[in-house]
Amino acid sequence: MSFRTFFSPDRTRYVLFTENVLLHMYSYAQRAWYQREAGGEIYSPAPYSSGLLVDTVTGPHRKDRRNRHSYKPNIEAATRARNAEYERGRHAIGLWHTHPEPLPSPSGPDRKTTEDYLHAFDGDRDRYLTVILGNRGEVPSITVWSAEKYGAWQCWTEFRGQSAEFLTITLPMQ
User: Fold this and answer.
1) Do residues 143 and 105 touch, judged by C-beta distance below 8 A?
2) Burial annotation 42-53 (CB, 10 A radius, 16+ → b, else e)
3) pLDDT single digits (tens) 81-117
4) β-strand partners of 157
5) Can you tell me the distance from the alpha carbon of 160 to that of 113, in angstroms, rounded to the nearest whole number?
6) Fold held by 4-156
7) Mean pLDDT over residues 158-172, rounded?
8) CA dist 47 → 89, 91, 112, 128 (Å)
9) How is residue 50 annotated by DSSP?
10) How far is residue 87's CA from residue 82's CA, in Å, rounded to a whole number?
11) Does 172 score more than 90 pLDDT?
12) Where are the domains of the chain?
């Protein structure tokens, strides 16, 4: 199974993306000049765990507004998807979208949107992630950032080279 794992700067937290989530996001990488930005939300069954498993992704939605350098989700479609995932035991832990650049970083609007989502939890969450796919490499580049409850932004580092058996993920009892 193919997966990708990113660690917080202090290495106390990580997020692991499953193969199905990665393949979905990769399919929207902006490899050609005519491709538009795309995005949506990422979900985990255990949103408060230090090891987040991202096993579900939504978006883009048909009525999203998308162009080469901008993505604005359709709020109604995103809300319906979020409610459906919540009913399935999945919790939104972040946003994902594409950028037409090799090593993407969040723009001002990306940061504001992520912070708005974090604040919507009314202090219930310590962070909200933003995942950005670039257009470099056979496998698209990905950067993971977090808006932190106390106002800072952190860039997470991809972990390479260790097998999945060394990573433990605490999942809620089903």
Assistant:
1) yes
2) bbbbbbebebbb
3) 999 999 999 999 999 999 999 999 999 999 999 999 9
4) 7
5) 29
6) Cytidine Deaminase; domain 2 (3.40.140)
7) 54
8) 10, 6, 21, 10
9) S
10) 9
11) no
12) 4-156
Token pair 């990708």 in the structure block, residue:
4
Q: Report in angstroms the alpha-carbon separations of 155 from 15, 59, 166.
A: 12, 23, 23
End-to-end Cα, the chain, rounded Å: 23
Q: What is the pLDDT of residue 162?
A: 54
Tell me if residue 168 falls in helix, strand or coil. coil
Number of neighbouring beta carbons within 10 Å of residue 153: 15
Alpha-carbon distance of 94 to 114, in angstroms, equals: 8
CB atoms within 10 A of CB 57: 23
* pTM for this entry: 0.88
- If phi > 0 it is left, if psi is from -120 to 50 it is alpha, else beta; for residue 51 that is beta
- Could you tell me which of 52, 41, 46, 48 has the C-alpha nearest to residue 4? 52
Tokens 């393949």 -> residue: 23
Q: pLDDT at residue 170 above 50?
A: no
User: Side chain identity at 91, as an amino acid letter?
Assistant: H
Q: Are 110 and 131 in contact (CB under 8 A)?
A: no
Q: What is the DSSP string of 87-137?
A: HTT-EEEEEEEE-SSSS----HHHHHHHHHHHHHTTTS-SEEEEEEE-S-T
Amino acid (one-letter) located at 5? T
